[in-house]
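Researcher: Structure for this, please.
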Amino acid sequence: MPEPLLSIQNVVAGYGPIEALKGVSLNVRGGEIVTLIGANGAGKSSTLMCVSGLLRARKGTVHFDGADITGFKPHTIVEEGLAQVPEGRKIFPRLTVLENLELGAYLRRDKQAIKTDLEKMYHLFPILGERRKQLGGTLSGGEQQMLAIGRALMSRPKMLLMDEPSMGVAPILTAKIFATIRDLNREGMTILLVEQNAHLALKIAHRGYVIETGSIVLEDKAESLLNDPRVKEAYLGDDD
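Model: Predicted structure, token format:
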């Protein structure tokens, strides 16, 4: 079994007196899609924020690509090859689509390669190419999500952290976004996916973890979790 590309070990973190993560451990191997599912407030986003340096771990470690990145600043973690597509997208509404994408490459100096990657983003999401001069805030929720993914990819990451990519997105564009996530993975991108729609997430993931009140309570292959009665009852609903 290869060494994990990302390894989170016994991470404790929180906000003031509130402990959001209570010793979380999980691993993601290169080439995998791993999903983290759980109820609102369970600690899913906090886990990603710890990995990306936006939330400081009080205890435990985060290793990425063989390096201990615990306590690194967010921009340094991006330099290491980890990029986050944040919950709520957080694009810059008063900047154009092009400017948002260029900001994703702010740590890079290879101007010609940046131009090449911009064209790749327009190929990946043709609507962004059509609207490259349009302000980001005028895009629909789904189009903004595509822009947020494109912005993260412009840093040329080794791994993507994705936080609730279907939130506030119309079903037809959600399907497009999840197809793109699968395609990126088939091309070699490693992905840690947080998604409220557990059924969608488990359908494209290789493995999954279930988090409850800041602790990992279940880990298995995604297919097994889809068929687990506990997961079905708690997260999948009658229609799934």
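Researcher: Any notable elements?
Model: Strands lie at 6-15, 18-28, 33-37, 59-64, 67-68, 82-85, 159-163, 190-194, 207-212, 215-221. The longest strand covers residues 18-28.
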